[in-house]
Structure formats: structure tokens, C-alpha cells
Write a structure and sequence with these properties.
- The structure holds three protein chains of three kinds.
- Helices cover 27% and strands 17% of the residues of chain A.
- Chain A is α/β, with parallel strands linked by helices.
- In chain A, strands 5-4-18-17-16-6-8 form a seven-stranded mixed sheet, covered by helices on one side.
- Chain B has a single domain, classed as Formate dehydrogenase/DMSO reductase domain (Formate dehydrogenase/DMSO reductase fold, Up-down Bundle).
- Chain B is built from 16 helices and two strands.
- Chain B has a two-stranded antiparallel ribbon with strand order 1-2.
- The chains are: A alpha/beta, B mainly alpha, C alpha+beta.
- Chains in contact: A-B, A-C, B-C.
- The complex binds ligand MGD (2 copies) and iron/sulfur cluster (5 copies).
- One iron/sulfur cluster (SF4) binds next to helix 1 and helix 6 of chain C.
């Protein structure tokens, strides 16, 4: 081994601090890290020489800052970036699993051209030049035939430079961009727009709130921004100020529900909006808040705007007793820093927009919008370009696209990180429609369900091998830009999506207009160019001029890379607009698919803790991440209330058939004490037919049960909680892989000295020992 | 005072040495069956060592299972030999004569089998020698605080003692065999008999050695199962660290060991046609002994239960609750009591049963089924409900590999006995002859009965 | 405290777990897996009740619907001062070091599993399966077959990879302790409070976990030891754990009856 002197150490350390990527020349060795000597005690652990690189996590849409530990050119461990304002050094299970994306054995390693019938899985490896040439030729031909509009680019929601390149590429060419997300945030975005006048997701300032009403928002699990919400939750509990109170309304106890001080079960699903408006009614009618707030929230109409939502009325609809509604309203209005959050549980109904905008408007009612501990609005991004985004399209748009495909109006379908074949309910018939698309091109780095239909695959590099950026979404309420850099040399012959598009735009036959706005050679060039205004602006965390000394843009760039990004605490959003007074009344009452007699259970679908909506199903660690509530890993299950289970003679590990009006599947029962009788819940994310060895042939995909006719009437987003199902015992059993022992029905600690609680007053009472 | 048939020396030689000098028709088939059974175990061990202990049913927190149960069981069986030989020898109980050797050999075979189990149970068998102090240079000492250091010491001491015991008692017979064989066998016996001539001085020395060894081995006999019990009693596992474990384990061992001897004697009697040597009198005597042993065992069994209740410690009571009321432990509890005490002891109350060979055979097997279950019942539940972190409580289900291992251990013990019987007489020829010397005929009522004066 | 910085300082490492902060998010569980080269607990292995979770988040249900509650409690090796696992190990593969750590010497372990039986916290994990899968028939029959090339490239070179038959458990990330103390020694200074961060502590988004020197009167952990909410797990066993828990607060708490 090379001898490192202390001076060398400082030198290399310094270089790291400046953010230069020290590419090691050597290829990854086959095996390493096995140190075995009969004499070495752990006391004498050998420490290797490590480098840390700042980057951005791309494992979900939150965009936390990360630092990656790199030893001998190999990424070893991902940690949170302590400087990044979103996650301040913290990270979630999925973020940690990033190294498995990089070193996944089933990654696609070079461009592939189909050599058998579609879906046969037979591909031959081709060179990048050949593959890009083929795409360019096809695009060129269609352009010449004036068929450019028949080219569709389907991507996962994108932000920043990737969004810019994609948009400009497709706009210049003349095609359309669609964005796909299995459980999309459309309703949340549109409701935020309705309530706060801004389609950007707001920051709910949980950290400084003291009383939180959360309607079906599982913010402690992968909803929106897991790490930042968990971080805030810790402070909310024991941050030094008043210990916050969390009230959670939901059908099925989520992790957030388990952490709530009060868990309020909503007997009638989809009635969150009614409940919220009833709370508003009490506050307004009893004048529990200032006149200005009432005026602001009701558009000057006062209590008239809330007629029909008297607690007694609301009790009928929601099933929550009127007295409880009044008590909640009083406590909410009285609290020092009240906050109302609405999430997927409330959004996933046919009246989603009504629900969420009603909930969000509760914040205006206590005047906490733009206030610490309330709802903070996010600036779009440090520059207009970085604020650019391609948000998910609702299922309505996807059904329209499917029809176009079916009618042979689409000639080329390009896919990047979008897997609609898995994520759309099968009754949308996206699969059959694909047959009518002459050419399918995928930029995926893994063989997923849709990619398996592709004619040409141009594999993307992993996020640890490529350049990029990310403005956190939702943000931290001030301008933040995370920068992503390659931490290791690309392992295979892959190219980042942005680089591939840029290369494509350079190919001559496509015509000059392709080049407009895409002058950059690579994504890195694009990033450098796009950050120039930030350098020139001379503000924020890293400035052009510091203490009278001006630094070069190159040095500034290196510093930004080393820090993992750039942020400016003073770059905040101007004042919010007044809401459109409890905006949507399109549909106050939810509708359900499936007749109540035949289909006895409401079906709840929730993203699983580890594999989320299925986009993370390919990694062993995310598969293993135990569901916090059931502790199940690697599998799909269905949660059934103990009373329902008893009635049907079901036990944990029994396999049941679940039928909805549109589909059916078989899965295993977990008797779940935290779910309402008459409701069952299935986590999304499993049931893949393609996606690498860890994901395939495992569990079931509950989206097959969802009736795609059930959409939020206002936005067209899929109402994934609006289908009813029926359960049939199959007599088969399957041992659910659970972390809990499950030997006895040991629901409670055997004796209370195990987990102790206090009443929060004196810290004295130990759980009855 | 016992009845005894009059047998000439010639008859004794013929009847007792024939299995050695000739080969019984069933011997080869029996060896084949035993070897096949053992082969099962060899296969199981090979699979287990290659793939890992994952092939067993062990999980977290149940880290010990069938192999340890079987270990305790065979150590228990090994208590028969010394119990019978040394105690009866010291007491000069005359009826012991035909029984001693077989019992001692059973001790050696079962103890050797038992010793194999902790060994193969180790995750890294190939490092087993690390439990011995061998690496003085690098100061790699074993930890003497661990019962797993006391355990091998006790077992190897006992194994050595028991082997010497067998050998000591074998010397005169080796002499006889030397004189009756030719070729390589003669050479072998000549070497093994250490120049035995059968002169009075040699007999005297051998007699003294017998008494000495009997005296010396008795404490080892008591210690060995006490120490085995400490594997459990010094631990923190609820219902394992019971203070009564040491005597309780010893008496349990005697119970199963003596029953094991009964089973074996029935088989020997039938196989070698030794009806004249192993008589209903022996079964009668052993039956009476067993009544006392079984009752003592039940007493400790109950104490163990009661102490948990007296202590009133939640976790102990919890484990006891599981042992008595939960499936399948409650069922095992029932079987243990019924098969280990109620049926046998009530049967042994009747002289006719004690003297009925087939009854004794059936009952002795019943006792050992009960005793095997008892060890299972003692070891597993405490681990299943270990401490109060109920989140991790799991159940134990043995795998096929473990079942094969247990099954094959019977094959190994049988094979050991069969091999021994091919090379050495299982009933000590010289002891029988010595016994005949003490024979006399006495008058009971108006009947003249052969009897032995020394009792 | 003015003291010579070059001398080995008497330390006693300890962890504080604030159950009131913990949300049960499982970040610590996976962070520990990643840092410490744990096997991938495949579906088979989890079904067999043998998952390796040096850090696990226990979930306890309480009450009945609709007054249902659930509580989370992260549990790892408590690094007991009176560790029941230590004296039963025949080969000194687990012992106590001068800094209060319960150390596990993988290379010395012969796999008797006695320590694991004797650990009341169920904190020990046994490598039941051969994880090396270079032989096809092992591959076919072993459950631990999922670390496929090139995934071993992310293994941490500071941590031994354990083979079958070896006991393992939370080490308080001793490799990180060593790295920090050595760096501090090189720079001729004392280790700063909070400088040593085990992987779980570093990741924990809610900051429910704190790590530090319990002998340092100014450290964060020492301050928490005096907290009114502090208690130890299974305190009555007298194992003197180095992990201190802070009670959960439940404003609606009513003491259970019958206690
Ligand atoms: N609270 C409580 N107190 C009790 C009892 C109780 O049940 N509860 N029981 C009482 C009874 S019955 C008894 S017998 C006593 C037992 O009490 P003690 O006689 O104190 O016995 P131990 O505590 O078992 O062991 C004493 C010490 O001897 C050490 N030791 C072991 N072997 C050796 C050796 O070879 N040499 C030396 N020098 N030291 C050795 C051990 O490590 C241990 O530290 O306790 C009595 N006190
Ligand atoms: N594992 C282990 N075994 C040991 C020892 C050891 O330290 N560890 N020590 C050895 C020594 S030195 C001794 S003296 C023995 C002691 O062995 P035991 O005499 O068995 O002593 P304990 O287990 O302390 O007490 C037996 C039970 O009696 C219960 N009890 C309490 N009060 C009463 C009462 O008033 N009446 C009745 N009937 N029961 C009551 C207790 O709760 C307890 O469960 O153990 C020996 N064996
Ligand atoms: S919350 Fe999302 S972005 Fe943040 S660490 Fe987790 S997966 Fe990565
Ligand atoms: S928690 Fe268990 S493994 Fe850790 S020191 Fe204590 S007894 Fe040993
Ligand atoms: S399993 Fe290893 S560490 Fe545990 S007692 Fe046995 S040898 Fe010691
Ligand atoms: S301290 Fe280290 S080894 Fe222990 S649980 Fe945390 S991460 Fe794992
Ligand atoms: S990372 Fe922190 S909050 Fe999450 S489960 Fe672990 S201890 Fe709890």
C-alpha cells in the first residue's frame, strides 16, 4: 500500500474539500474488504483512506443533500450532507440504499437493440453511436413527414437541468412530454395552488408548530420529504419549546398516526374536507380567530360560506361526533402555532381537491400562512431555469395518451424513469395500446415492465455517476440548489439521460432548430452555464466576493460542488395570495366504485415504507426495510381489522383473494389492530414482472384493483382510495416475512418496564411498574 | 437373596463367548441397519457444516435446539453404567454381575455420542480446539468462567474414567479370549490383556482397582450432569437458572439411564439367548430401583415448577405458563408425567409386571421418550419467551436435518454396542464364574433352592 | 478540563435513545446494515426469523380499536457493563474493553451461540448461512445468496465480513470510534463531543439517538443521563446497560391497572 504522509493527507483532504473528483484509474476489483486475521481484535481495526463527495439524493423527489464515502474509487456509504438545509446531515433508509443502485447486478450495461419479438427479452448490445444514430434517423424521418407531434417523451417528474434539456429538446422537435408517477401529487399541487396561489409544494413548518391537524398525511413515511419532516418531527417533540400536539385523522394507522398524540379514526372515508370545513365553521361561527383571518379565509363571506358544515351535519357525513369536532376546533384555534396538513389519504378520493383545499385553507383561518410554525411558501428556484419542472400528469392525461396510442397516432414513445405499464391500472389498457406504437425507446438503467417492451434501450447512468442538480421539492422556504456530481467513474457503457439527449440534439440530420437553447456539450457544461448567474449575483452561501476578495468562477464552482450545493436564506417567497375562499365545491362527497353489498371493504392503498410506489423495488435494502407498523419486509400484505378477521375466520398469514369491480389479486392477511373495521389496506410497490432479481415475482400490485374511472373530478388524478373490494378465503397460507417474532399474540410488552411512558407532566409515572 | 441357576464353567464359556467367537446370523444385518441410520446423521452433518446452521430450525432468539436436547439426553443415558457398576459393586450387590459390562459399555457409547453433539452444534466446528488452552505463545486462553469449558472437562473426565472402568473389568475376559483364538485375533487379545494370567495376585489387584475406580468415579458421575445442568443454571434465561437444576439433572439422568439399561438387557437377552443369565430377577431388581429413582425425579420435577411459582417472578411464571398451558408444551408436560412416572411407577408396583420382560421393555422405552421430551420441555420454552422483549418472541420448529441427527445418534450408540459385542463378551465371563463360586443351595420351606450366600 | 491530550483518555461510550423523538422510520436499521457489512436478510431469512438487524425498531401495540396505540423502541446491543453474554463465551470472543464497549471478536468466535442465549436484549445475531455463494450447490440451497457481484464493491473495508458460524452484534461502530480517536491523537487534541457518530446516530432524522462519552461531564449524553425521563431497558436484571432510554411522553397516559 502507498505510504501516506500527513502532508499528503492534508493535500488530498484539501483537494476533496475543493470538490475535485479524484478519479482513480483502476477498474473496480472483484472482491475486497475481507480482512481476516486470527490476531486482529476489533480494537485494532484498520482504517482505510476515504474521500467524501457532496451530491444530491435521487432516490425520491425530496432531493436531500448527500455525501458519499469513496474509497479506492468505489462508493461505500451514503450519508446526509450536514450543510444541506433540507436534511442537515440526516438521511432515510432509501437514501442509504443508493449504493445498491450503483452496484446493482442487474443494471443495463450498454445500449441494447431488440433482437426477438417484443417482450421476449432478447436484445443485442450495440454502440452508443449506432443507437443514437438510429434514434436520430427515426426522429429525422418523422420530422420530414411532418409527424413530429407523434413523438412522445414520457418521463418521471423532472426538475432543473434535466427538465430544461428535456423540455427544450421536445419543444424544438415538436413532440410532447408526459410525466408519470404511480401515486402522483397532482391533487396536492393543485390544492396548494387553490389555497396558496402557488403550484409549488409549500413547506409545512412542523418544527415550530405546536398543534397539528394532519388529515391523511403520512409525512413521517415517504410522503413528499421524509427526512426533512422527520427532522422537524424530532424538534416538534423535544426541540426545547412547547411539546407539540399531533392529531392524525385517518382510516388506517400510518407511521405518522402511530406517533400522534391522538389518533382519530375517520369512520367514513373521503370526508376529510367536510370535517375540515366543519372545524372552520366552529371557528368562524364562534369567532375563535381574528376578524381579519375570517375575512381572509372566507373571501369576506363569513360563516355563510360554510353553511351546511355545521358540526351536527358533519357528524352525519364523517362519523366524527360533533362534540369532538367542536373540541378540536377550539384547541386548534387556541394553539400558539396551529397547522393543518392534508395528504394522500384525503387526496386519493374523487373529491380530493375539495378535501385538500378545505384543509389547506384552515391555515388561512388561523393566519399562519407565511408565518413561523405555519405554512411557508417556497420560492421557485434560485434562477428561473432551476425552478423549471415537469410535474406528473394525472391519470386522465394518461388515458388520453393511451387512446392516441391505441389509434396509432403515436410513432415513437420515449421513456425515462417512467413505468406506466406497472403503475397504471391495467384497465387503462396501456399495455395493449403499446402494441400500436411502432417504436419504443427507453432510457432506463433497469429492465422495468415498460422498458421490457422497448425496441431500443439507451441506459442511463446512475445518479452517483452523473451530473445534475435538484431544487428540493418541497423546499425549505428559501432558495436552495443541490448539485449532483459523479462520485465514481461510470461502471459501464451508460450515459446520463441529459447527456444522451444533448448528444442526440447534435446529430446533423435533425435540423438546426434542435440546437436552439441546447448549445451545451454535456450536462456538466449546462450546469456550469446555468449557475453563472448565481456566481454573478454574488449572494447566498458561497459568493463571488468574500471578505473583499473575488474568486474565479472555477473556484466558486468547486466550492459549490464541495458543499453539495448553493442556498440563500434571504431568497424567500413574496407574500402569499389570498385563497379562493374554500375554493372547490365541485364535489363535497366522495364516490366509490363497487356496490356496498357486494364489495364490503373500502380499499386503501399506501406506498410502502421501503419500496414506495414500486420505483424502489429493485434494491435489496429497500425491499428489506421493514414496514414500521407491521414489520413486514419483501412482501405485499393486506391489513384487516381484528374484528373483521374474526368474523371471516381469518388469521395472519392466511391468503385471501381480493376482488374489486375491475380486478382481483391474491395476497396475505396481516391482522392489523390499527385499521377501521370495513376497511382494508394494501401497500403498493410489489408485484413486478421485471425490475431485476430482487423485485421480480414478489407480492402483488394493488393498482390492478383500482378502478381508473374513479378520478378526482377536479384534477383528473387517480382516486386510488375510492374502490371497494371483497375478500374471499382461499384456505392457503403464506408465512409473512416479519421482523417481529410473532410467536404469540404478544401485542403488548410483557411488562411495562420494557417501554415506559410518562404523562408528560412530571416525567415521573413509569408505565405502572 | 436371589435364585440362581447352576451353571458349569464350560456352559458359561460357551454361552457367553459365542457371539465373539462365532457370528450371529443377525449381526451383519443389524450392523448394516445401524450403519445406515448413522449414515443419515453423517449426511446431515455434512450438509449442515457446508451450508451453515441455517439448515437447522434454530432462529433468534432460540439458539439452542434439538442438538443440545439430544446431548443432555445421551449424557443422561450414560449415567446408567456407573450407577449400576460402581454403586452395586461397592454395595456388593450380587445380581449386578451379568448387567455391569453392558451398562458400562452403554455409558461409554452414549457419552461419546453425547460429546459429539456440542461439537457439531458449533458454528465453526473446525475451530473446536479453541476451547482448549493450547496457544500459550499468543496468550489465547479460553475463558474459565464459561460453563462451556467446564462441560468438556467433566465429560472427558467421565469418558476416560468409564473407559478405564470397562477395561479394568474386561482384563480377565481378554485373557480367556486370547486363549481361545488364533491368528491376528490372538495377537490382538494378547496385546490387550496386558499379560493377564489369572493368578490370585492379578485377581486381587484387579479387585482393588475395581473398588478404587468405583469410588473415584462416583463423584465424577454426580458432577457430570450437574455441570451439564450449569450450562443452563448459570445463564440468565428465564426458567433455566433454577437452583435445583444440578441434583434434578442427576436424578433425571439416573432415571433415563437405568431405564436405558433395561431396554438394552431385553434386547441382549433375546439376541444372544442369554435367558439363563439375564433373568426376571434382574428386571425385578431394576424395577424396584426405578420406583425409587422415578419418585425422586418427580419430586425434583415438581420442585422446579413450584419454585417458579414461589419466586413469583413474572418472566419465570410466564415461561411456566407456556410450558403447562400452551400447545404443544402442555401436551409434552402431560406426556412427561404420564409416560415418565404415572404409567411406569404404577406398573412397577406389581411384581408380575417387573418380572414380565415385554412389559419392562415397553415401559423402559416409554420412560426414555418422556425423558427426551422433558429435556426439550426444559430447554426450548425459556428461549422462546426469553425476557420481556415480546417483540422478538419466536417459536422453534426443528428441521429435517435436526431430526436426522437425533435419529442417527441411536444408530451410533447401537453400532458401538454391536461392534463391542463382536470383539468382547457383553456379559463378564469371569464375573459369572466368580458368582458361581459364591453359589450355595439353601433350604426354603421344604424346597432346596440355589442361592448366593453373600446377600 | 485541562489534561494531556496524548495520553489515552478514560472513556465510557454511551448512547441515549429518546423514544419520544423516534418516529420508527427505520433509517437507523438500514444505515447500520450499510455501515457494518451485514448480510442481506433475504425474504427466506426473514421468514426463518433470522434477519440481521443489529439495530431493530420494536413496535408494540397497545389498546384496542379505535383507541389503538403503537409505540416504537429502537433496540441494539446495550453494551452492558455487567454483560451476561461475556462470561459464558468459552473463547473470549466477546469481552469488555477499557472504554466500556462489549467487543465482539469475529475471528475468535467458534459459534456456540451461548452468548446469544444469555443476552436478555436479543441483541446478538448468528450467521446461520454461508454467504459465499461461489459453489452452485450452495447457491441452490443457501438462503444467504443475495450479495451478487458487483454489490460487494460497496462493502466497508473497515469492517470484517463475517462468514457462517460467527456471532455478531452492534459494535457501537467501533471502526468509527477508532478513526476519530486516531485522527484526534494525530492532531494532538481531545476527541470532541459529538465527533464520534455511529452510523445509526448519524442517519437518524429525528435525532432520537445521541452518542458520546459518559465520563465527559460536558457531553450531551451525560446531560441526558440526568433527565427525568431516563431509564434503562430491563433495569432490574442488573446488566447496567450503556444505552439509556428517555421515556415516551403520552399526554393521555393513564397508568395500567393492576400494577
Ligand atoms: N441475596 C441473597 N443472598 C444470599 C443467598 C440468596 O439466595 N440471596 N443465598 C445464600 C446462600 S444459600 C449461599 S450458599 C451464599 C453463596 O454466596 P457466596 O458464598 O458468596 O457464593 P457465590 O456468590 O456463588 O460466589 C462467591 C465468589 O467466589 C468466586 N469464586 C468462584 N470460584 C472460586 C475459587 O475457586 N476461588 C475463589 N477464591 N473464589 C472463587 C466467585 O467468582 C464469586 O465471586 O449466598 C447466600 N446469600
Ligand atoms: N443456578 C444456580 N444453582 C444453584 C446456586 C446458584 O447460585 N445458582 N446455588 C447453590 C446453593 S449455594 C444453594 S444453597 C442452592 C439453593 O437452592 P434453592 O433452595 O432452590 O434456593 P432458591 O432458588 O433461592 O429458592 C428456592 C425457591 O423457594 C421459594 N421460596 C421462598 N420462600 C419460600 C417459603 O417460605 N416456602 C417455600 N416452600 N418456598 C419458598 C423461592 O421463591 C425460590 O423459588 O442452590 C444451589 N444451586
Ligand atoms: S427523503 Fe428522498 S431524497 Fe431524502 S434521503 Fe430519503 S430518498 Fe433521498
Ligand atoms: S445487550 Fe446483550 S450482547 Fe450486548 S452487552 Fe448486553 S448482554 Fe451482551
Ligand atoms: S457464539 Fe461466539 S461469541 Fe458467542 S459464546 Fe460462542 S464463541 Fe463466544
Ligand atoms: S452503533 Fe453502529 S453498530 Fe450499533 S446499531 Fe448503531 S450503526 Fe449499528
Ligand atoms: S432512525 Fe431515529 S427515528 Fe428512525 S427509527 Fe431509528 S431511532 Fe427512530
Amino acid at each position: 500500500m502507498m505510504e501516506l504522509t500527513r502532508r499528503d493527507f492534508l493535500k488530498v483532504g484539501g483537494a476533496t474539500a475543493a470538490g475535485a473528483v479524484a478519479f482513480t484509474g483502476c477498474a473496480p476489483s472483484a472482491r475486497e474488504g475481507i480482512i481476516q486475521s486470527p490476531l486482529l481484535m476489533p480494537e485494532d481495526t484498520l482504517n482505510s483512506f476515504e474521500n467524501w463527495y457532496g451530491s444530491v439524493c435521487k432516490q425520491c423527489s425530496a432531493g436531500c443533500g448527500i455525501v458519499v464515502r469513496v474509497i479506492e474509487g468505489r462508493a461505500k456509504k451514503i450519508e446526509g450532507n450536514p450543510d444541506h438545509p433540507l436534511n442537515a446531515g440526516k438521511i432515510c433508509a432509501r437514501g442509504v440504499s443508493g449504493v445498491q443502485v450503483l452496484y446493482h447486478p442487474d443494471r443495463l450495461r450498454s445500449p441494447l437493440r431488440r433482437s426477438g419479438p417484443r417482450g421476449s427479452g432478447r436484445y443485442t448490445s450495440v454502440s452508443w453511436e449506432e443507437a443514437l444514430g438510429e434514434v436520430a434517423a427515426r426522429l429525422d424521418a418523422l420530422k420530414k413527414e411532418h409527424q413530429a407531434q407523434s413523438v412522445v417523451m414520457a418521463v418521471a417528474p423532472l426538475r432543473g437541468v434535466a427538465a430544461i434539456i428535456t423540455k427544450r429538446f421536445m419543444t424544438n422537435y415538436g413532440g410532447t412530454v408526459y410525466s408519470f408517477e404511480t401515486l402522483d401529487n397532482t391533487v396536492v399541487r393543485r390544492s396548494a395552488e387553490a389555497a396558496f396561489g402557488d403550484a409549488l409544494l409549500p413547506k409545512f413548518d412542523l418544527e415550530n408548530a405546536t398543534y397539528v391537524l394532519s388529515f391523511g398525511a403520512n409525512f413521517l413515511e415517504p410522503w413528499l420529504s421524509q427526512v426533512s419532516y422527520n427532522r422537524a418531527y424530532g424538534e416538534f417533540r423535544q426541540g426545547g419549546g412547547e411539546r407539540g400536539t399531533l392529531i392524525q385523522f385517518e382510516q388506517r394507522m400510518s407511521t405518522t398516526g402511530a406517533n400522534a398524540d391522538e389518533w382519530v379514526h375517520l369512520p367514513n372515508p373521503g370526508t376529510d374536507g367536510v370535517l375540515a370545513l366543519s372545524i372552520a365553521y366552529v371557528i368562524v361561527s364562534k369567532n375563535l380567530t381574528s376578524a381579519a383571518n375570517i375575512r381572509n379565509a372566507t373571501g369576506g363571506a363569513g360563516v355563510v360560506a360554510l353553511r351546511g358544515f355545521e358540526p351536527a351535519e358533519a357528524e352525519k357525513k364523517t362519523g366524527v361526533p360533533a362534540a369532538r369536532i367542536e373540541a378540536l376546533a377550539a384547541a386548534y384555534a387556541k394553539a400558539k402555532a396551529p397547522l393543518a396538513i392534508g395528504g394522500m389519504g384525503a387526496a386519493g378520493h374523487t373529491n380530493g381537491l375539495f378535501n385538500l383545499s378545505a384543509i389547506f385553507t384552515l391555515n388561512h383561518l388561523v393566519g399562519n400562512v407565511g408565518r413561523k410554525g405555519g405554512v411557508l411558501l417556497n420560492p421557485s428556484g434560485p434562477t428561473r431555469e432551476f425552478g423549471d419542472q415537469i410535474a406528473a400528469d394525472p391519470v386522465r392525461a394518461w388515458r388520453a395518451l393511451t387512446d392516441r396510442m391505441q389509434n396509432k397516432q403515436i410513432n415513437i414513445l420515449m421513456l425515462h424513469d417512467a413505468n406506466p405499464l406497472y403503475g397504471l391500472p391495467p384497465t387503462v389498457k396501456f399495455g395493449p395500446a403499446l402494441k400500436n406504437v411502432p417504436m419504443i425507446i427507453s432510457f432506463s438503467s433497469f429492465m422495468d415492465e415498460t422498458t421490457a417492451m422497448a425496441d431500443l434501450i439507451l441506459p442511463d447512468s446512475s445518479y452517483l455517476e452523473s451530473w445534475g442538480d435538484y431544487v428540493p421539492d418541497p423546499g425549505v422556504a428559501y432558495e436552495t440548489l443541490g448539485l449532483q456530481q459523479p462520485v465514481v467513474n461510470p461502471l459501464y457503457s451508460t450515459r446520463s439521460f441529459g447527456d444522451a439527449l444533448l448528444a442526440l440534439s447534435k446529430t446533423a440530420p435533425m435540423g438546426d432548430d434542435m440546437k436552439t437553447g441546447l448549445a451545451w456539450e454535456t450536462t456538466k457544461d449546462a450546469l456550469k452555464a446555468l449557475t453563472t448567474p448565481l456566481y454573478e449575483a454574488n449572494r447566498g452561501s458561497i459568493r463571488k466576493t468574500e471578505g473583499g476578495k473575488t474568486i474565479s468562477q472555477e473556484l466558486w464552482w468547486n466550492k459549490v460542488l464541495a458543499a453539495g450545493g448553493w442556498w440563500d436564506e434571504r431568497g424567500v417567497k413574496a407574500t402569499p395570495i389570498a385563497p379562493k375562499a374554500f375554493a372547490s365545491r365541485d364535489a363535497t362527497d366522495p364516490k366509490f366504485s363497487g356496490d356496498e353489498k357486494q364489495y364490503m371493504f373500502h380499499l386503501n392503498i399506501f406506498p410502502s415504507a421501503g419500496v414506495a410506489d414500486g420505483s424502489m423495488a429493485h434494491l435489496p435494502w429497500t425491499q428489506f426495510t421493514p414496514d414500521p407498523m407491521t414489520t413486514i419486509a419483501w412482501q405485499t400484505w393486506i391489513e384487516v381489522n381484528p374484528k373483521d378477521a374474526e368474523k371471516m375466520g381469518l388469521r395472519t398469514n392466511d391468503i385471501v383473494r381480493v376482488d374489486s369491480p375491475v380486478g382481483s389479486l391474491e395476497t396475505t392477511v396481516y391482522v392489523y389492530p390499527g385499521i377501521a373495521p370495513g376497511t382494508v389496506a394494501i401497500p403498493a410497490g410489489q408485484g413486478h414482472t421485471h425490475m431485476g432479481r430482487y423485485a421480480e415475482k414478489r407480492g402483488a400490485n394493488p393498482l390492478t384493483l383500482v378502478d381508473p374511472e374513479m378520478i378526482d373530478v377536479s384534477t383528473g388524478a387517480l382516486a386510488f382510495n375510492a374502490t371497494r373490494v371483497r375478500l374471499t378465503k382461499t384456505g392457503k397460507r403464506y408465512q409473512l416475512p416479519r421482523i417481529e417474532g410473532g410467536a404469540v399474540e404478544a401485542r403488548e410488552p410483557y411488562d411495562y418496564t420494557v417501554i415506559q411512558v410518562t404523562d408528560g407532566k412530571g416525567g415521573g409515572a413509569t408505565g405502572g411498574h | 437373596m436371589q435364585e440362581r441357576k447352576v451353571l458349569t464353567e464350560l456352559q458359561i464359556n460357551d454361552r457367553l463367548l459365542w457371539p465373539v467367537l462365532e457370528t450371529a446370523s443377525w449381526w451383519w444385518p443389524a450392523v448394516t441397519v445401524a450403519a445406515l441410520v448413522l449414515g443419515c446423521g453423517v449426511t446431515a452433518v455434512t450438509i449442515m457444516v457446508t451450508l451453515g446452521e441455517g439448515t437447522t430450525g434454530l432462529n433468534r432468539p432460540i439458539f439452542w435446539g434439538f442438538m443440545i436436547v439430544n446431548f443432555v439426553f445421551w449424557v443422561g443415558i450414560s449415567h446408567a453404567g456407573v450407577m449400576i457398576s460402581s454403586i452395586l459393586r461397592l454395595c456388593q450387590a450380587e445380581w449386578r454381575r451379568p448387567v455391569t459390562r453392558a451398562a458400562e459399555v452403554l455409558t461409554v457409547c452414549s457419552l461419546a455420542t453425547a460429546a459429539l453433539f456440542p461439537l457439531i452444534h458449533m458454528g465453526r466446528v473446525w475451530r473446536f480446539y479453541w476451547v482448549f488452552p493450547y496457544d500459550f505463545d499468543r496468550m489465547l486462553w479460553p475463558d474459565v468462567r464459561s460453563p462451556l469449558i467446564w462441560d468438556p472437562s467433566a465429560i472427558f473426565t467421565y469418558l476416560t474414567g468409564a473407559t478405564m472402568f470397562v477395561f479394568m473389568a474386561l482384563l480377565p475376559d481378554l485373557g480367556i479370549l486370547r486363549d481361545r483364538t488364533t491368528g491376528w485375533r490372538r495377537t490382538f487379545y494378547a496385546f490387550a490383556s496386558l499379560g493377564w494370567r489369572g493368578n490370585p495376585r492379578q485377581f486381587k489387584l484387579q479387585f482393588i482397582l475395581g473398588i478404587l475406580l468405583s469410588g473415584l468415579i462416583l463423584p465424577v458421575f454426580v458432577s457430570v450432569h450437574s455441570i451439564v445442568s450449569w450450562d443452563f443454571a448459570v445463564s440468565l434465561v428465564p426458567a433455566w437458572h433454577a437452583t435445583v437444576f444440578a441434583p434434578y439433572f442427576v436424578i433425571g439422568a439416573v432415571h433415563s439411564g437405568v431405564s436405558g439399561v433395561v431396554t438394552m438387557m431385553v434386547v441382549l437377552r433375546a439376541a444372544f439367548k442369554w435367558q439363563d443369565y439375564i433373568t426376571p430377577d434382574h428386571f425385578d431388581a431394576l424395577g424396584r430401583l426405578l420406583v425409587a429413582v422415578a419418585t425422586a425425579w418427580l419430586y425434583f420435577f415438581m420442585l422446579d415448577l413450584l419454585f417458579a411459582i414461589y419466586g413469583g417472578e413474572t418472566r419465570e411464571v410466564g415461561v411456566m405458563e407456556q410450558r403447562i398451558f400452551q400447545w404443544p408444551w402442555g401436551f409434552f408436560f402431560f406426556l412427561i408425567i404420564v409416560l415418565g412416572y404415572i404409567i411406569p411407577v404404577s406398573a412397577w408396583m406389581f411384581r408380575s409386571v417387573r418380572r414380565n420382560i415385554m412389559w419392562m421393555f415397553a415401559i423402559s422405552i416409554m420412560v426414555n421418550v418422556s425423558m427426551w421430551l422433558e429435556r426439550l420441555w426444559l430447554i426450548i420454552p425459556g428461549l422462546q419467551n426469553k425476557e420481556r422483549l415480546t417483540f422478538d418472541w419466536a417459536v422453534f420448529q426443528p428441521s429435517l436435518i435436526e431430526i436426522m441427527l437425533v435419529f442417527s445418534s441411536f444408530g451410533l450408540v447401537c453400532l458401538g454396542l454391536l461392534m463391542f459385542s463382536k470383539f468382547f463378551p457383553l456379559i463378564p465371563v469371569w464375573e459369572e464364574k466368580e458368582g458361581q463360586l459364591f453359589r450355595e443351595e439353601i433350604k426354603i420351606g421344604n424346597r432346596i433352592v440355589p442361592a448366593i450366600v453373600r446377600e | 478540563m485541562a489534561e494531556p491530550t496524548t495520553a489515552v483518555k478514560e472513556r465510557k461510550w454511551g448512547m441515549v435513545v429518546d423514544i419520544d423523538r423516534c418516529s420508527g422510520c427505520q433509517a437507523c436499521v438500514v444505515a447500520c446494515q450499510s455501515e457494518n457489512n451485514q448480510i442481506i436478510s433475504t425474504e427466506d431469512i426473514v421468514q426463518q426469523k433470522r434477519p440481521h438487524v443489529w439495530m431493530r425498531v420494536e413496535r408494540y401495540w397497545e389498546g384496542d380499536f379505535p383507541n389503538q396505540k403503537a409505540k416504537f423502541m429502537p433496540v441494539m446491543c446495550q453494551h452492558c457493563e455487567n454483560a451476561p453474554c461475556e462470561p459464558v463465551c468459552p473463547v473470549y470472543a466477546t469481552y469488555h474493553n477499557a472504554e466500556g464497549l462489549n467487543v465482539q471478536v469475529y475471528n475468535r468466535c467458534v459459534g456456540t451461540r451461548y452468548c446469544a442465549n444469555n443476552c436478555p436484549y436479543h441483541a446478538r445475531f448468528f450467521n446461520q448461512w454461508e454467504r459465499n455463494t461461489d459453489s452452485p450447490w450452495r447457491e441452490a440451497f443457501s438462503s444467504a445468496q443475495m450479495i451478487a457481484e458487483p454489490m460487494n464493491d460497496y462493502l466497508n473495508p473497515d469492517v470484517t465480513v463475517r462468514t457462517k458460524g460467527i456471532m455478531e452484534k452492534c459494535t457501537f461502530c467501533i471502526q468509527r470510534i477508532r478513526r476519530v480517536t486516531r485522527t484526534a491523537k494525530d492532531q494532538d487534541r481531545d476527541v470532541k463531543d459529538g465527533e464520534v457518530q455511529p452510523a445509526c446516530v448519524q442517519s437518524c432524522p429525528t435525532s432520537a439517538l445521541i452518542f458520546g462519552d459518559m465520563r465527559d461531564p460536558s457531553s450531551k449524553v451525560t446531560a441526558k443521563l440526568k433527565d427525568a425521563r431516563a431509564f434503562h431497558l430491563l433495569e432490574d436484571l442488573g446488566t447496567k446497560p450503556s444505552v439509556t432510554y428517555l421515556k415516551k411522553i403520552d399526554p393521555n397516559y393513564k397508568p395500567a391497572k393492576g400494577h
